[in-house]
Amino acid sequence: MTWEEMLPLLWxxxxxxxxxxxxxxxxxxxxxLPIGVALVVLDRGGLRPAPALRAVLGFVVxxxxxxxxxxxxxxxxxxxxxxxxxxxxxxxFVVPLTVGAVPFFARLVETALREVGTDVxxxxxxxxxxxxxxxxxxxxxxxxxxxxxxxxxxxxxxIGYSAMAGTLGGGGLGDLAVRYGxxxxxxLLMIVTVVxxxxxVQLLQSLGDWxxxxxxxx
Amino acid sequence: MIQASGLRKQYGDVxxxxxxxxxxxxxxxxxxxxxxxxxxxxxLRCVNLLERPDAGTVTVAGQNLTALREAELNQARxxxxxxxxxxxxxxxxxxxxxVAFPLEIMGxxxxxxxxxxxxxxxxxxxxxxGGHRPYQLSGGQKxxxxxxxxxxxxxxxxxxxEATSALDPATTQQILALxxxxxxELGLTILLITHExxxxxxxxxxxxxxxxxxxEESGTIADLVRTPGSRLTREIFPLPEPxxxxxxxxxxxxxxxxxxxxxxxxxxDVDLSILGGxxxxxxxxxxxxxxxxxxxxxxxxxxxxxRASGLIVEEAA
Lengths: 218, 317
Ligand SMILES: Nc1ncnc2c1ncn2[C@@H]1O[C@H](COP(=O)(O)OP(=O)(O)O)[C@@H](O)[C@H]1O
Ligand SMILES: [Mg+2]
Fold this sequence. Notes:
heterodimer; A: mainly alpha; MetI-like fold; 9 helices; 84% helix; B: alpha/beta; Rossmann fold; Alpha-Beta Plaits; 2 domains; six-stranded mixed β-sheet; four-stranded antiparallel β-sheet; 11 helices; 34% helix; 31% strand; elongated; binds adenosine-5'-diphosphate; binds magnesium ion; AAA+_ATPase (chain B); ACT-like_dom_sf (chain B); nucleotide-binding (chain B); membrane (chain B)
């Protein structure tokens, strides 16, 4: 295969991967962040302790985390059909990617929030801050560098998941590598795809590290 | 200004507060002195209900805080400032942002906030530092930010949890001087807890000594140093205990400038030898404690004269 033949394959595949990862990142933050906050707030010694509810939530999150992604993807096919009306194509795979990444990200959010000292939380409460204010103005801003680091790890994991999703009909770089590189023995394309994935992950990680460092004032 | 009565707090098997009463008068600096684990922090955190006592009531500025619901309590807390041992500043905000934080909570508009932050930073001697980040400041400066933040809502009361314990001695004195100044200029009532006698000696008008979740002794420093056998006096003026047989321990308070000892030696047929003692500045008064041996025919009369002169005379058995 020549470069002229590879480019028309690589470009749309990259766009598909970017779309899958981009949308699922957005939804992962949308659902994962509140769940992570809830895991901390509801915990014993949290802002609004509710140990029973917290235990249920933790259990559900752990189930999500313990299923291998490929199994999860297949297991939730009915759910995917319900949400997007189809189970193939890039859009359909945003659902399993999100479902797979939410518990993962929620745990990272939980860890980041736990890093915030109890002394600043109590200082805010001593000033008469409501619980919502403590979450909005203390917990989240103070944990921001950790949240960005967690988000970076999540995006990188999503790129990995998306390659897997690709092989089941989601398209993207993973799909390309399997269809051409593996099934048609186009070794060069396989190598190019792998290199491309490595470069993307490296760039994202560096960007995430840089942002986290800029936000940290320790 | 602050009344606590019958406060009890238990953590599992540990009784952190075992029936504590406290009466802090308006405009005074009240120190709670005790060793680590005595229950001081728990007591302070019960005063603004960061910790809810198992039993007892807390009244601040006439308002019974223990009876309030959460929203009302949050309102009441805005009139109670608090400073912390490790400053508890938000690293995500600048110095100005930290001082503005309580004002944001109170819903003060931005322009008013900025004006007030400027005033507060000037009050604590941090003009021009508003744009700095907490990590760029020294410990003493961080505590000044903490103080400015605590004063943002014009509180009637300031609570201080070991506010100088993380600072070196010179910085400690500066922060204590600042607290003393705020107490004098703003009429701010300050309840501070500490494990350092030095803090009590430097700034407090009254003190409660805590051990094992109980208040062992409390009152104004002026009264306590005049109370024979008080724990405060023994700790401020360490003399060997028990006093050697035949010795006499004299406590001077309020006789500054009067040469009582030489008067005694001149007027009576006694020899006086000094065994130990020291003089301290306490609550604006010069207080001394002297252990002497008095010998001679007139010893009894000499002691009576000392008592009549207002000294506290403790005779060893
Ligand atoms: N949140 C808590 N959980 C369990 N035990 C606590 C808690 N807070 C304080 N204690 C215990 O209560 C006692 C008094 O603590 P504290 O009020 O912090 O003392 P101090 O401030 O005088 O050092 C200690 O034995 C401490 O271990
Ligand atoms: Mg303490």
